Amino acid sequence: MTEPGAPPAIECDHVSRWYGNIVAVNDISFSLRAGITGLLGPNGAGKSTMLHMLAGFLQPSAGAVRVLGQPAWGNPEMYRQVGLVPEREAVYPFLTGYEFVLDSARLHHLPDPEDATLRAIRMVELEDAMGRATGGYSKGMKQRIKIAAALVHEPTVLLLDEPFNGADPRQRLHLMSLLREMAAAGKTIVFSSHILEEVERLAEEVLVIVSGRLAASGDFREIRRLMTDRPHTFTVRASDNRRLAASLVADPSVYGVELQGSELQVRTSEFAAFTMAVAGVARRSGVTIFEMRPTDESLESVFSYLVKR
Predict the structure, then answer these.
(1) What span, in angstroms and rounded, lies between the C-alpha atoms of 146 and 160?
(2) Cα separation of 25 and 46, whole Å?
């Protein structure tokens, strides 16, 4: 585990990265110690750019990135202690799974690359397929063999970009269990995702990135509360919209109701309280609800709300 008072494993100090006039990452600062951190945000938010800077593949346009106390950029020696699983397909289709991981072990000059390769492949449960060419692997298998290659040298810091893409439910559970074991052993793990459920199940801490900015950071449960206890709008269709509207206005969970043609627009800042109360309100009013749906539940709308706070 992390020694008390030990320096952060990862530090970002006012980091920005731009491509011409396009700002991919905008003035982000954070520090991470051992454990699992989820990098959460919609597609195109800047998560991959952030991970590539942490991995030393991209130079920050401004600010500084340090990994294990050393600059990430221009520091090849860092890779002795860092593993990266990129989102893109980074396998050579003509190599078998075993050969792919073995090449990574040899690049790290491990004393027994064959043994390390077998150990890493067992960790991701690909022993049965390690003799096959990776070009014939499914997407989930390619993800797992990339993870094996990233783990073969037992890195202190592991960076994963959308690691569960293509994994079936059983594989997903196994990989999550594997990452938890590594974190318990003192490793620092950062993984990106645009899926809230993945981060909720795995991450201890979360960094929410939207449009290149750090919208929120810290304990996931607190940030999840911010996401839930925000203004919500529901579209409702009922047998008598006017009668239902009059009854809903009196409910403490509702702060606005608007008739729009054949529908109601209902605004609430208490998601759970409203969804539990609405059926009772309709029943007491003698109204039948035909349809009720949230109109602002996309990840983009959730993240945009966090940015504006």
Answers:
(1) 10
(2) 6
Domains of the chain by start residue, with CATH: 10-225 (3.40.50.300), 229-308 (3.30.70.100)
Read off the pLDDT band of 4 (50, 70, 90). Answer: low
Q: How many angstroms separate the CA atoms of 267 and 230, rounded?
A: 10
Give residue for tokens 């340090």.
66
- For 199-242, write each residue's pLDDT tens digit: 878 888 889 888 899 887 877 666 666 655 556 788 899 999 99
C-alpha distances in Å from residue 88, one per residue of 13, 161, 272: 27, 9, 38
Structure confidence at residue 222 (pLDDT): 66
- Tell how strand 263-268 and strand 157-161 pair up: unpaired
- DSSP class of 112: S
CA–CA dist 189, 32 (Å, integer)? 9
Burial of 111 (0-12, 13-18, 19+ CB in 10 A): exposed
Cβ contact 226:306 at 8 Å: yes
Which among 237, 206, 242, 238 is positioned nearest to 221, based on CA atoms?
206
- Residues 134-170 pLDDT 10s: 999 998 899 999 999 999 999 999 999 988 887 888 8
* 101 close to 147: Cβ distance less than 8 angstroms: no
What are 228's two structure tokens?
């839930």
Q: Which amino acid is at 114?
A: E
Q: How far is it, in rounded angstroms, from Cα 202 to Cα 198?
A: 6
CA distances from 106 to 98, 116, 152 (A): 12, 10, 10
List, edge to edge, every strand of the sheet that includes 254-260.
Answer: 254-260, 263-268, 232-238, 289-294
Predicted structure pTM score? 0.74
